[in-house]
Amino acid sequence: MLGAWVSFWAAPRPLAGMNLRAMSELLARIAQGSDAAAFHELYQSYGPRVKAYLVRRGADPATAEDLAQETLLAVWRRAALFSSTRGTASTWIFSIARNLWIDRLRKEVPWQELPPAHAEVTSPEPSPDAVLSENEVRIRVRAALTALPAEQQRVLELAYLQGLSHGEIAARLGVPLGTVKSRVRMAYQRLRAQVEDLK
Amino acid sequence: MTITHHLGTETLMSFAAGALPGALAAVAGAHLAMCGRCRDELVWFERIGGALLDDLPPLALRQGTPQLPRTQPGAPPETGGLSGNAANPILRLAGQDFAGVAWRRIGIGLWQHPLPLPGTGVLQLIKAGPGATVPEHGHGGAELTLILRGALSDATGSYGQGDVADLDQEIEHTPVADRSQGCVCAVANEVPTRFRGWLARLLQPWHGL
User: I need a labelling partner for B152 at 20 to 30 A (CA). Which of A9, A74, A134, B204 fits?
Assistant: First the structure.
């Protein structure tokens, strides 16, 4: 698994058919009416990735698939709440899958809720410009991520995909906690600078 | 409510990653519910998660697209897992003005109420009377303190309602509650707090930590 990850970072791949703008449009179609065809397409794109994410977080494959289904059904129910100005479809789906996994870990007690920005604000009609610019941001975030030094990528991987706290990352890598934190800060600064410089 | 103290970059990142220990995540979540600036920042870190999700090698699903529920999209959100912020025990208790909280006295002008939680870390509400001092203590790990009522100050600054003190383990401090209104705050520690001095050691067993 680690080998696969390393090769992912080393050799950026094409998006494997994922068109983020198309994904946001699918969400808009779902929000506007019960568009089962749009849901099917969304499900087939994201379901396998959400399952892969949950397996990395430690779920067994059957649980991962159940939770992936639950994640996408939550998307179906809540599509009207999606705001493309606050992240791509991927950002939103990631945060839903993350919350469902945390709820599961913490015995169904919801300690980390969907951020209110997503949960409570009903988005206005998504403007094509907003979708496009968020898609641009996403492309730049990804480019910035792949350009990060390996040690910073490793910290992000351990946090996002394995769910390790900073203390656990420090122990895993055998470095001081302060080093982990400074890698997080540097990664964030580079990411932010790269995206905003290009605006 | 003007919030001037925010969550640190490292804490936001860990929260977005779903990697923040439970007690800290509860306090961070309560602050996020009050703070638009931190919510905007959080989106940056969730974008990282979205980008990583897109690039994961997909795992084939064993079953097809599920049967869709009959409810129309846009229907009121269902509860359970994705419920609103009222599910956060800190906000729930604050919303009820701490009615029904069984405060336990732990020192002069100091009360405590533990919030048991599944997951890692120690979470408690602390109530301090006007001018009360929390004994000097250091942290074996991260500490997050969110002011729910009143105000608090220490060497790192003054904290009012909605402010969060995001301190790391190197810091030792002696918070003092506001002289007129006192303070109610939620405190999360990654590991139990260590108090200094003989009086504090005497109080330690009472502190329940």
Answer: B204
B57:A4 CB<8 A: yes
Which domains does chain B possess?
1-54+88-209 (2.60.120.10)
Q: Is B76 on the interface with A (CB under 8 A)?
A: no
Minimal Cα–Cα distance from B54 to chain A, Å?
Answer: 7
Q: What share of chain A is helix, strand, coil (3-state, %, to 5)?
A: 75, 0, 25
């919510």: which residue's tokens? B39
Which residues of chain A does B141 touch, with a Cβ-Cβ cutoff of 8 Å?
A: 167
Span B89-125, pLDDT tens digits: 888 888 888 888 999 998 889 999 998 876 778 899 9
pLDDT tens digit string along A38-88?
999 999 999 999 999 999 999 999 999 999 999 999 988 888 777 766 677
Other Cβ atoms less than 10 A from the Cβ of B180: the count is 9
Which residues have C-beta within 8 Å of that of residue B19, sequence separation ≥ 6?
A159, A160, A162, A163, A164, A165, A166
Contact assessment for residue B149 and residue B162, using Cβ atoms and an 8 Å cutoff: no
Q: What angle in degrees, to the nearest 10, is found between the helix axes of A166-173 and A177-197?
A: 110
Q: Please, which pLDDT band fits residue B203 given cuts at 50, 70 and 90?
A: low
B residues 185-204 lying closer than 8 A (beta carbon) to A: 190
The CATH number given to whatever domain includes residue A113 is 1.10.1740.10
Contact A169, A158 (CB under 8 A): yes
pTM over 0.80: yes
**Best A94, A103, A104, A190 residue to mutate vs chain B (most B CBs within 10 Å):** A94
- Whether residue B82 and residue A30 make contact (CB cut-off 8 A), yes or no, is no
CA quadruple B145, B150, B152, B158: dihedral positive or negative? positive
Number of domains, chain A: 1
Which A residues, 145 through 164, put their C-beta within 8 Å of a C-beta on chain B?
145, 156-157, 159-164
